[in-house]
């Protein structure tokens, strides 16, 4: 009887559709239905299933040249056939070579662990961009208006306006706009802006490459007359960059060219099969217009009285417009499809309060520090002028703090045209980092919706979620997310407000893993890591920021001493590694490999016979030894000791990456290098397990960052890094953990770390059984701590621990004091990997641990919930205390394996989905590891209850 029932059950299961595995979230090159110019794009999907423990055992992808064919399951471009594989990402297209402009449709189906077939996914598509230089018909055009710039400190010419009229005679089937600019562009068809992106085509080393974007403009076109219009701005290409003005550099602007250029072509395919390409060329006409000046750092001025109504529509009289200037192309410059995600408005913020100052100016508070612009709604007479200045903080008297912007003018001006119905305006070629806006020129108190804050950021998918029962922590998390948004803007900038906004490599490398847990940053960093590789110095060192403009002599153009620094340069290895780790991206590793190898070769030239970077070895750079543990407190960690640890870490990461791409010789080479550095480090920088440095070698510290404080090897930063990078054997590791703990205790449970020390600090404490101290640091509200910022009203992460203090106020404002600097937000890594406890074992989270570090009883934190949407699917881990039980709720994606670590007194105290664990079907996969139980889990949702004993 039993057998019959079993047979019937199996039989019905077989008859129902077999597997309930369903591929969802289909992506091409990390994007949903994108335009791509990778000739062999990579595909990915995630899987859903109703049942537990589901795996993919095989997949079939089909790619078709038409939707019809795909629907008939005809993969005329590629039919992978049934591939026995658990892979769901980085599946390399392996079909017929694709051509420029080709649109293709694809879908996927998978087989489950029992080899039962599932249903086809929904259809997805991608479209190829322009793959060959010869696909480009458009010429670079522009209009040099430099002679119209007002003289003085800020050279800000008006924006060129460009236009061209065309007739469309036949029925349009599809139309595309391919557009690139050196500088920034906005493109209009018949008066409508194309797309909702800002700041195209981004910042690159324009001598090497420039990006283009593609837009579907089918609906923009009309039968008969059509007008294409464009407005350009200097942007990163010809505008002000960084602190060049502030530090008095010989060159302060126009680092790549003197005025912005546009290259665009509209390609129309008609219903009758014919086509047309309309390109930028000498027939376009140019003029100045209402946009009087615009610059990232200095802001924008718009004179609405100078508007040329209808300039971007047909039948406009452009007889006094001039022919556009056509510029020669640079033959070494590549033109490629923008690999990142475009900058867009990601959130609109209403005004929180408006106050009138005694001097008649108004201060608007948005209640949130962000990067972006405003949208203003105004009513007034022609030539009334409103001036907007932006700042992150207010002085005690309520006036705007602008000192910390240094030479960034950060001022927008709008001159009204006097429209009786009111006028709405928003800057388009600038952005500011701000919470407050000071407005001059208002005649009366404005309405509450007078301004809206538009937060701009690279438009990245949200990947993380965090919530707890501790409000301080929730606020801290939101501050991290906002600061990432404000600084993941085309490139990963250090800050969005002052005259800097450079993609500092040190900041980027300490923060990148934290960023992974907030957003899908794969495409964003595909773009930036290219910038970084492009900026490698001839000697192999990666620069301190990238893109890095250089002058004709090859010298850093923003400030000549801006070369390289340990802790910054390693971004060239670490950032590629983090993308490899999070997204299983082997292509990134292969592409970065030659650059990374060159960098490792460079470091090797600096090492002594022990394989160590000894004290004083980086004296030739400025500041001496590099930036070291930038913005730390008290004694400086020997920068060379730190550099040695980083050298070791890079060798280890190189070994892992080279192994993954089967570069055997290199794998061995870097394995050896790591071993040598390991023993060299012990011999040179430790004494019976205690870290040391020859501080006499640094003299009186002149030329070093805060060298007057003296140098030491025995610091929180040194141990935290050594533990994090795992340079020590288990025994030494434990000892280093004890020393680290001691240093924290000796300092009243406070940190002394800067940029390089803070990132590994909490992970290192947890790694060596001091999570209690990690929690103390996390929730401290005393200076120096992140909580201190929160209780002082922060809505973002500050650059310095003492950016503002109660007793001293803003002491650093005149020099360097950003209130939106993500570097110290690197604590996010600990929040996700230790507090929530999700950490990958395999690249791309195919397997991972859930090992939450639970706080000691006296810590005011009883409930934590986090999700991370990995490339393998959505992982959730939550824990909370309730009466006498601790509850863990987990969600494991299909096709992954989790190893869950449970603290419990005995097996009998653990319940899984209502059953005693020891008696459940999971009993056989339980293993005891120290004082914890380790349990292997397949996909599905789980609720654990663990009895708590007093
Ligand atoms: C500062 C930047 C950045 C840091 C460098 C060393 O000016 O803001 O955060 O990496 O200097």
Compile the SSE list and pairings:
Elements: H1 2-15, E1 22-28, E2 35-36, E3 42-48, E4 56-64, H2 67-71, E5 78-79, E6 83-84, E7 91-92, E8 103-112, E9 124-128, E10 140-142, E11 160-168, E12 172-182, E13 184-189, E14 192-193, E15 209-216, E16 224-233, H3 235-238, H4 244-247, E17 261-270, E18 275-279, E19 285-288, E20 291-295, E21 299-303, E22 322-323, E23 325-327, E24 334-337, E25 343-350, E26 353-356, E27 362-378, E28 385-391, E29 411-415, E30 423-425, E31 432-440, E32 451-458, E33 464-468, H5 471-487, E34 488-489, E35 491-492, H6 505-516, H7 522-534, H8 571-583, H9 586-606, E36 636-637, H10 639-660, H11 664-685, E37 686-687, E38 690-691, E39 711-712, H12 716-725, H13 730-746, H14 755-767, H15 771-779, H16 786-791, H17 828-836, E40 838-840, E41 847-850, E42 863-870, E43 873-882, E44 885-892, E45 897-903, E46 910-912, E47 915-916, E48 926-929, E49 932-937, E50 940-947
Parallel strand pairs: 2-9, 15-24, 21-29, 36-39, 41-45
Antiparallel strand pairs: 1-3, 3-7, 4-5, 4-6, 4-8, 8-9, 10-17, 10-23, 11-16, 11-19, 12-15, 12-17, 13-14, 13-16, 17-18, 19-22, 20-21, 25-32, 26-27, 27-30, 27-31, 27-32, 28-29, 28-31, 33-42, 34-35, 37-38, 40-41, 42-43, 43-44, 44-50, 45-49, 46-47, 46-50, 48-49
Bound molecules: alpha-L-rhamnopyranose.
């Amino acid at each position: 009887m039993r057998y019959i029932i079993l047979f019937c059950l199996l039989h019905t299961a077989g008859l129902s559709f077999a597997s309930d595995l369903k591929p969802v979230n289909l992506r091409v090159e990390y994007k949903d239905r994108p335009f791509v110019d990778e000739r062999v794009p990579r595909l990915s999907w995630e899987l859903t299933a109703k049942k537990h423990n589901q795996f993919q055992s095989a997949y079939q992808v089909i790619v078709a040249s038409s939707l019809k064919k795909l629907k008939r399951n005809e993969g005329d471009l590629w039919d992978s056939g049934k591939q026995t594989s658990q892979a769901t990402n980085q599946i390399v297209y392996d079909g017929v070579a694709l051509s420029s402009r080709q649109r293709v449709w694809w879908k996927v189906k998978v087989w489950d662990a029992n080899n039962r077939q599932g249903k086809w996914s929904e259809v997805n598509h991608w479209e190829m961009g322009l793959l060959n230089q010869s696909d480009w018909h458009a010429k670079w055009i522009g209009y040099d208006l430099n002679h119209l710039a007002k003289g003085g400190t800020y050279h800000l010419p008006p924006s060129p306006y460009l236009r061209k009229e065309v007739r469309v005679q036949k029925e349009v089937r599809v139309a595309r706009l391919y557009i690139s600019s050196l500088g920034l562009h906005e493109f209009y068809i018949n008066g409508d802006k194309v797309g909702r992106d800002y700041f195209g085509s981004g910042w690159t080393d324009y001598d090497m490459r420039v990006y283009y974007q593609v837009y579907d403009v089918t609906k923009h076109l009309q039968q008969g007359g059509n007008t294409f219009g464009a407005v350009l701005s200097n942007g990163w290409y010809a505008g002000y960059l960084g602190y060049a003005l502030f530090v008095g550099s010989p060159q302060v602007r126009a680092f790549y060219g003197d005025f912005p250029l546009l290259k665009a072509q509209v390609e129309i395919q008609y219903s009758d099969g014919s086509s047309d390409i309309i390109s930028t060329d000498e027939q376009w006409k140019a003029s100045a217009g209402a946009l009087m000046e615009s610059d990232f750092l200095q802001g924008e001025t718009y004179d609405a009285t100078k508007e040329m109504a209808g300039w971007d529509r047909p039948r406009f009289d452009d007889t006094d417009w001039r022919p556009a200037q056509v510029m020669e192309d640079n033959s070494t410059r590549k033109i490629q499809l923008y690999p990142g995600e475009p900058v867009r408005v990601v959130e609109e913020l209403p005004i929180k309060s408006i106050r009138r100052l005694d001097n008649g100016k108004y201060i608007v508070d948005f209640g949130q520090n962000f990067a972006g612009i405003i949208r203003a709604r105004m009513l007034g007479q022609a030539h009334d002028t409103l001036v907007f200045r932006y700042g992150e903080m207010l002085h005690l008297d309520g006036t705007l703090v602008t000192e910390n912007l240094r030479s960034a003018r950060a001022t927008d001006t709008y001159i009204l045209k006097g429209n009786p119905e009111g006028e709405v305006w928003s800057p388009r070629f600038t952005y500011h980092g701000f919470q407050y806006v000071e407005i001059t020129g208002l005649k009366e108190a404005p309405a509450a919706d007078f301004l809206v804050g538009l937060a701009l950021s690279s438009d990245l998918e949200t990947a993380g979620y965090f919530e707890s029962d501790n409000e301080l922590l929730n606020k801290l998390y939101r501050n991290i997310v906002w600061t990432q948004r404000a600084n993941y803007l085309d490139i990963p900038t250090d800050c969005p407000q002052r005259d800097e906004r450079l993609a500092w490599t040190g900041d980027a490398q300490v923060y990148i893993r934290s960023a992974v847990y907030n957003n899908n940053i794969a495409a964003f960093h595909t773009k930036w890591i290219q910038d970084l590789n492009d900026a490698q110095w001839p000697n192999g060192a990666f620069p301190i920021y990238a893109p890095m403009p250089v002058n004709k002599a090859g010298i850093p153009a923003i400030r000549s001493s801006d070369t390289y620094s340990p802790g910054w340069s390693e971004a060239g290895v670490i950032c590629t590694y983090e993308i490899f780790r999070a997204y299983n991206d082997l292509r990134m590793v292969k592409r970065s490999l030659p650059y990374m190898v060159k960098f490792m070769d460079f470091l090797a030239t600096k090492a002594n016979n022990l394989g160590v970077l000894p004290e004083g070895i980086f004296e030739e750079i400025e500041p001496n030894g590099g930036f070291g543990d930038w913005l730390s407190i008290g004694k400086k960690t020997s920068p060379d000791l730190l550099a040695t640890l980083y050298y070791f870490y890079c060798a280890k990461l190189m070994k892992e990456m080279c192994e993954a791409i089967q570069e055997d010789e290199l794998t061995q080479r870097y394995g050896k290098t790591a071993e040598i550095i390991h023993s060299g480090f012990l011999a040179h920088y430790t004494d019976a397990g205690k870290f040391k440095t020859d501080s006499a070698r640094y003299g009186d510290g002149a030329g070093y960052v805060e060298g007057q404080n003296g140098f030491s090897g025995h610091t929180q930063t040194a141990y935290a890094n050594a533990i994090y990078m795992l340079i020590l054997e288990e025994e030494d590791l434990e000892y280093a953990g004890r020393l680290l703990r001691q240093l924290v205790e000796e300092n009243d449970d406070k940190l002394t770390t800067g940029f390089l020390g803070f990132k590994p600090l909490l992970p290192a404490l947890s790694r060596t059984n001091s999570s209690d101290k990690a929690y103390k640091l996390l929730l401290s509200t005393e200076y120096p701590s992140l909580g201190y910022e929160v209780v002082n009203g922060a809505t973002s992460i500050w650059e310095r621990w003492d950016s503002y203090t109660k007793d001293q106020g803003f002491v650093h404002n005149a020099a360097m004091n950003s209130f939106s600097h993500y570097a110290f937000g690197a604590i996010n890594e600990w929040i996700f990997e230790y507090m929530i406890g999700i950490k990958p074992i395999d690249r791309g989270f195919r397997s991972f641990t859930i090992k939450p570090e639970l706080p000691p009883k006296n810590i005011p934190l009883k409930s934590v919930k986090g999700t991370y949407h990995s490339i393998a699917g959505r992982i959730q881990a939550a824990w909370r205390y309730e009466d006498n039980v601790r509850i863990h709720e987990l969600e494991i994606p299909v096709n992954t394996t989790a190893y869950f670590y449970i603290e419990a007194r005995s097996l009998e105290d653990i319940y899984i989905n209502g059953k005693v664990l020891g008696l459940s079907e999971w009993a056989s996969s339980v293993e005891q590891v120290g004082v914890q139980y380790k349990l292997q889990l397949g996909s599905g949702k789980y609720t654990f209850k663990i009895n708590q004993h007093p």
